[in-house]
Amino acid sequence: MVTRLAWGDAIGNQVRYLQSLLRSWGHTSEIYADSWDDACRDQVRPAKSYPREATRDSVLLVHHSFESRQVPLIARSRGRKLLVYHNITPARLFEGYDRGAALSCDTARVELLALRPHVDGAFAYSRFSAEELAAAGYPRVDVLPFAIDWNAFDTPPDPSLMAELDDGCSNILFVGRAVPSKYVDDVLRVFTAYQRLYQPKSRLLIAGNIHRDGPYGSFLHGLKDLLGPERIQFLGRVNAAQLSACFASATAYLSMSRHEGFGVPLLEAMYRDVPVVAYGAAAVPETMGGAGLTTFSREPMDVAQLLAVLERDSTLRQQVLAAQRARVAALSQQAVATQVRNTLLRWLGARDAGPAATPTPSEAPAIELVCPGFTSRPDAPMSRLARELHRRLPDSRILALRGRGEEPVLSLGPRTSEGASVWHFTPDQPVGPAPEPLPGSSSLETAVRASSGKVVLLGTDSGVSQALLGAVGRRGWGVRDAATVTDEAATEAARHHLGAQLLELDRSDLDAVANTLVQGLSSKRGARHARR
Question: How far apart are CA 211 and CA 420, in angstroms?
Fold first, then answer.
């Protein structure tokens, strides 16, 4: 079951391929959706018909990535249900461009929690996504290998487009919808630096749907005019032959996306022997698997230099291509199909199959101390305040971001740091050095949403805190450090949501803030919970 079945969409392609695998293994398999493209109308059944067609022996794979409004339908359907989580784009990545999409992303995360009681288990296509399911309290979580139909990439290139692009230019390619989360504007900035500093005879190809009259599409065209590089082509939605021509003529593939649950175009570029340069956000490093070039810098000149070195250093280029070929070989059609089959059968064979249960929100402490920089910036005032609060509030835990290079995990649990109980979560983007703002974290934010405890946001200007302001309601407290805040809009949002429960940090007297918080939290929980 999907919300919409679309041709060329990564989720639609995955669903159709899974169906073909299931049928090849002797299962009856149908796809249900609320809407679909005309090209898919013969492959899909209306979602509303599923409850009456399902039996107690049916197994429903619920593919979740966006607002669906399908939870009531799923809840009343007979048979077993398993969640397949493709990840949800953080709402903050649409803010300023598409309020409707931002609200739908927030609703989708509410639905992620609402689905939990109705499914027997859950899959994700990356450990990054699986960690969020564990944070949401799903009792059984497993990583499902992303099954790619590599044969679909073997379409011969369109000859006319190929002739146009094969003119001696270095072609930098990006494939995907032109939406804010993909940060196509950063692709434009990197390309501009590359063309001006390293390769004047270059072209940028952007293949994917772009809404020219929408806020983000208009912004991209305006930015293109402002930056002034030559030979930028917005190709829009392309067919299979045109896409093959783009890859066949590409010198390098560039992605600056801030969020990927699993980046199929990255692997498609590897399969087509195009070297990949990608910003290491979310599940991108996991998808790359050590191949290609993953950058943790968003600076256009830094990334442009990588593109230039790839072009000029033939030894490095061959090393990159060799690593990419090895990555693709590890994801061979037969090997992955076998892994998918074994993983699914482990769940379908018995109700008690699957990994051990993870802690549920009901087991969470009474107070959540949200301090994203606790581990990466241990000497910062907010980290010191978190340690003091944890000392005084024994039924609290500290929620922090993992450091750079630490991999996501399926079984969340505390680590002891200087006597404090710290739960670590993977950031959506790499954590940079201070004073760079701390990024958000889908899994940390979901853990707080799933918890019923009081919440203290230590540093209300962080991405995590800003994402949680509307979710914590009256159970939320916040601490603002005026010495580090540069975004007045973030301050106004914190004041709006927290009111009198937003406190100002006095760096010279951390105890004063700690005393106020302990008093405020203890007055509603009982003085026996506070230790002075």
Answer: 49
Tell me how many degrees the CA angle 422-423-428 measures, rounded to the nearest 5: 130
Q: Specify the pLDDT at position 52.
A: 95
Q: What CATH number is attached to the domain comprising 232?
A: 3.40.50.2000
The Cβ of residue 46 has, within 10 Å, a number of other Cβ atoms equal to 11
Does 486 score more than 80 pLDDT? Answer: no
- Identify the pLDDT of residue 524: 53
Query: Is the pLDDT assigned to residue 360 strictly greater than 60?
Result: no
Q: Is residue 345 part of a domain?
A: no
Question: Where is 453: in which H helix or E strand?
Answer: none
- Amino acid occupying residue 66: F
Cis preceding-peptide flag for 435 (omega within 30 of 0) = yes
Spatial distance between the Cα atoms of 490 and 463, rounded to a whole number of angstroms: 9
Q: What is the DSSP letter of 169?
A: P
**Cα–Cα distance measured from residue 15 to residue 47, given in angstroms and rounded to the nearest whole number:** 14
- Domain with 303, as residue range(s), is 151-330
**Cβ–Cβ < 8 Å for 118, 81:** yes
Tens of pLDDT, residues 129-179: 999 999 999 988 999 888 888 888 999 999 999 999 999 999 999 999 999
**pLDDT at position 169, please?**
96
In the predicted model, what is the mean pLDDT of residues 83-107? 95
Q: Which residue has the higher pLDDT, 350 or 255?
A: 255
60 beta partners: 81
- The model's pTM is 0.91
Query: Are 315 and 395 in the same domain?
Result: no
Q: Which residue has the tokens 């005879």?
A: 201
Cα 456 from Cα 503, distance rounded (Å): 10
Q: Is residue 347, in this structure, part of any structural domain at all?
A: no
Show Cβ contacts of residue 264 under 8 Å, excluding neighbours closer than 6 positions: 10, 13, 146, 148
Give the DSSP letter string of 326-349: HHHHHT-HHHHHHHHHHHHHHHHS
Q: Please check whether residue 355 lies inside any domain of the structure.
A: no
Longest Cα pair distance anywhere in the chain, in angstroms? Answer: 77
Q: What is the DSSP letter of 213?
A: T
- Residue 94 confidence (pLDDT) above 80: yes
Q: Final residue of a domain: which of 148, 165, 181? A: 148
Report strand pairing: 414-417 vs 420-425.
Answer: antiparallel
Secondary structure (DSSP) of 43-83: G-EEGGGHHHH--TT-EEEEEESS----HHHHHT--SEEEE
* pLDDT-derived band at 362, boundaries 50, 70, 90: very low
Rounded to 5 degrees, φ, ψ at 423 are: -105, 125
Q: Any idea what the CATH number is for the domain that residue 403 is in?
A: 3.40.50
Task: Taking the CA atoms of 318, 321, 323 and 325 in sequence, report the sign of the dihedral they define.
Answer: negative
* Tokens 């024994």, residue located: 394
pLDDT of residue 394: 87
